[in-house]
Amino acid sequence: MAAKKHTLGTGLDIGTMNIVSARREGGDTTTNRVRDAFLDLESGAKKMLKLSGVNFIDRGEDGIIVVGDAAMEMANVFGREARRPLSQGLIAAGEMEALDVLGVMIKSVLGDPKAKGESCYFSVPASPVDADRDVVYHKGVFERIVTECGYTAYPSNEAMAIIYAETAKEGFSGLGISFGSGMCNLALAVVGVEGLSFSVARGGDWIDAGAAKATGSTKSRICALKEKGVDLMAPEGREQEALALYYKALIEYCIDQTAREFAKIKDRFALPKPIPIVISGGTSLAGNFVPFFEKVFEKKRKRFPIEVSEIRHASDPLNAVARGLLIQAMQEEE
Amino acid sequence: MKAIISKEKVIIEDLGITLYPGSVRWLEEEEYKSSICLKVLQKMGKVQVMDSKRHKKKKENKESSNRVNRAARKYRSPPHNKPKPPSSNSGPNMVTEEEARRLAELAAKKAADNAVAQLTAKFTEFMERSNPSPTPVETGGIEQAVQQAVSQALQSAKIPTNSQGVASELAPSSGPEEPIFIPAGIVKQDSEDLSVQITSSKDENIDDAVAALKALKKK
Predict the structure, then answer these.
(1) What CATH number does the domain located at A168-313 have?
(2) Residue A131 gets which letter from DSSP?
(3) Do B213 and A331 touch (CB under 8 A)?
(4) pTM
């Protein structure tokens, strides 16, 4: 069987919950995903982990680090919280252990470059408007990791990647929203020109924490309940109702922040025609998220400063950012 | 009577009096005794209190004349246009302007000496605590060092002159010029790859999007 023809260029979405790479192979788009979580265990657990085929990093006398989905599962087994290399979408300075883990994770999802110095566009969140956090260190760390993997690294705005992946038919015009785990990223573009981009330091984790606090539950339980499936239009029980309430608050917050940020640039940025809102991200996978978003948006539409043509879900919400980055990398290689 | 001399602006809360640098304020004995704030300020060396006598009689006369009711005023004899005696002609119990200045300077010097002495004591105590060796600390040298340090600090102290003093003080200390350390060798070339979740899908839109983006960039 003939080997698949590789198209040069790769996209890498570095999220708080998942790290996803996208590559074009033949006529297919292949995505590699790893859960962005780890758990440190004593060396004694090594044998058991080897037998079960779980991903782990051996640190000799310092113990072992279980990585990825297995870390989440093991954390539940041991009654512990899995550690996240990223917090609220960004890596914290001085987190040396997290750096090592990220190095292994990114090397694994990217694989070897298909040509020397192959282009790799990686996602960088915009600066949050509601938190005093800097993306400079974050960008620098991932630029180094991607470069050490043998690629030519290009940092690229996370929400703009959604515009590239999902709005080609509108001439790359729209408002892209990535509802992530650690934060929400938003970008407004007209004809591929970025007019506005920002992030808010709230996301799926904020929903989990809020709903857990409101119901006296735990974050991991609420997260599990959320991932099991919750219908936001018809929540059942106290926990689901709390989840719906926090989802509504997050959507309202994003809409209000967009209006506020747009007010700052409205004199310098013209929108010739209505634009679509494209929603993506793991947090948007909750049942009926888009109708729920529309319902919340309708109440604010009159006062929203941007004329919206439609609100739609990304064709592949979990991989939309990686696909948008892949498009940019492929364009770079051509 | 008590003469209160201050070397800086102080407010005596319980008397409702504000004293300015170098000013002299006269107080009754009872007022002085009743004021706790004044005594505290005196102990702190912020004000100096001196026993003195004043033309009490004259003041009383003045006060009593002030108390004459309005109806009686028109029958009152016109006020004497007594020329105000120059300060240099003050009696032996009066504090002249020069004396007040001298006293204020004296008080200021004393307060500064006190501050240096207190700093020296604190520093010695700190040194003794951090270095519990029996070797005695030479306080004379320390005193000199503290004096030098204080004078240097005062010389180098910058007083904000712009109207946005507070804002400039609150400006972030870190800026884009600040170097960021990113360690090298994060990716270990000999590390084993993790097993990742792989999905593959037919996606014609990507090629179209790449072509559209390329066309857009050419424009």
Answers:
(1) 3.30.420.40
(2) S
(3) yes
(4) 0.67
Residue of B185, B186, B206 lying closest to A323 (CB–CB): B206
Which of B191, B195, B212 is the closest to A168 by Cβ? Answer: B212
> Do the chains contact at B210 and A27, CB–CB below 8 Å?
no
Starting at the edge strand found earlier in the chain, the sheet holding A56-58 runs A38-41, A64-67, A56-58
For the segment A125-148, what is each residue's pLDDT rounded down to a tens digit? 999 999 888 889 999 999 999 999
Q: Domain ranges in chain A?
A: 37-83, 168-313
pLDDT in tens, B29-60: 888 888 888 888 888 888 888 876 554 444 44
B176 inside 8 A of chain A by CB: yes
Q: Do A57 and B191 touch (CB under 8 A)?
A: yes
Interhelix angle for A289-300 vs A237-265, to 10°?
Answer: 50
- Chain A residues close to B184, C-beta within 8 Å: 144, 148
Instruction: Tell me which H or E stretch contains A47.
Output: helix A46-52
Say if strands A184-190 and A174-179 run parallel, antiparallel, or are unpaired: antiparallel
Strands (E), chain A: 6-14, 18-25, 28-35, 38-41, 56-58, 64-67, 86-87, 90-91, 119-124, 152-157, 174-179, 184-190, 193-200, 275-280, 308-313
